[in-house]
Fold this sequence. Notes:
- Chain A is mainly alpha-helical.
- Chain A has helices spanning 2-97, 100-117, 123-164, 166-195, 206-209, 226-239, 251-257, 266-272, 280-286, 295-301.
- Chain A has a single domain (2-221), classed as Helix Hairpins (Orthogonal Bundle).
- Chain A has ten helices and no strands.
- Chain B has a single domain (3-121), classed as Response regulator (Rossmann fold).
- In chain B, α2 (34-43) packs parallel to α3 (60-68).
- At the A-B interface, α1, α3, α4, α6 and α7 of A face α1, α4, β5 and α5 of B.
Amino acid sequence: xxxxxxxxxxxxxxxLRAVFILGQRxxxxxEEVVYFLREISPLLEEVNDxxxxxxxxxxxxxxxxKSVTQATEMATTEILDLIDVVLRELDEFNQSRSRAPxxxxxxVALDQELQERLPDALxxxxxxxxxxxxxxxxxxxxxxxxxxxxxxxxxxxMNRIMLALQVQDITAQQLAAxxxxxxxxxxxxxxxxxxxxxxxxxxxxxxxxFTPGTFDPHAHYDRSGKRQQRADAIVEAFQQGxxxxxxxxxxxxxDALFGGSTPTSQSEIDTLFNGTPTxxxxxDALFSGxxxxxxxxxDALFNKPQS
Amino acid sequence: xxxxxxxxxxTMRRIVCNALREIGYTDVIxxxxxxxxxEKLEQETVDFVITDWxxxxxxxxxxxxxxxxxxxxxxLPILMVTTRGMKEDVIAAMQARVNNYIVKPFTPEVLRDKxxxxxxxx
Lengths: 307, 122
């Protein structure tokens, strides 16, 4: 029994020795890890501070975007007011000017009456004057017609300017979408900072900052008419009782959903990793060597005698 | 014919109202969102609704559904004028039973054509 106990004890001691040896081998690694953690700790702190700083600055960016929207809305309102004034004045001018041809006609009629009532003795002398006067009346018709065309043209251009101001509404929606994105990122970053043990940032209720559904994230100013044509085709299909006939989503629409016009290529992905695909050599170089570590080197790490 | 123009953007309301005036429709009232629009529809007799989609409180799609579920107003012509031009958007609007659909930016010619088209069919 006693001998058995001694064997057991020796066996346990051997196991303990193996553990100590393993521990000894592991110590350099643990030291490396501790050293690495010491090195990385200020870096993490810096990242944390930088995150907090960026997160604190985001509301300013967001508020500046809101100011831009408000400023463009004010400017647009001023332009619309001016267009209204111009259109109103054009209407007034048109109204007063529209009486001119009628007045001219009345003048001609009065002249003719006067001509008829002239005594015969005076007629030869005044006839030349009256003829010249009639010519002038006729010549006046052309400038009046020209004025008509000019007024219509100015009116048309004013209306075109007004319609072009739809860009303000579209841009406002684009800015609202960017704003929403900034606030969402800010919220996520603030959550990350909190998890990293940083400060708790206030005013992170995204829902209170943006009324849902008040902007279209895909809004864009497109005057080609293609989007209207596509909408018309769908409306027509519905009106003909055949909504299933609507064409499938185009690549443009799919791209728009992902916020880009072209898919990311492999070369673009490679560029992110310094331009060329990473080779085995580059990976080895990261571990301080241009050639793979030999078994001897690995053994040396564990203080194992060479065989 | 009385029009109700519903849009949360005062700029867009002015633009639509002006475009309507230019094509001969001068009797126009305005609302800033779907809730405001429903109140105006209860108070006044309106013959035609032109609505935006993206609005606070009640959007254009919800307004359309509310009108279609209303006993008195359910046959009111509705034209949606919006920046949303994706296929899914147009389908959703048609399923909510708008009469026609315009993608911003629009021209007065398109507005006139759509109004005439709707008036022919209702």
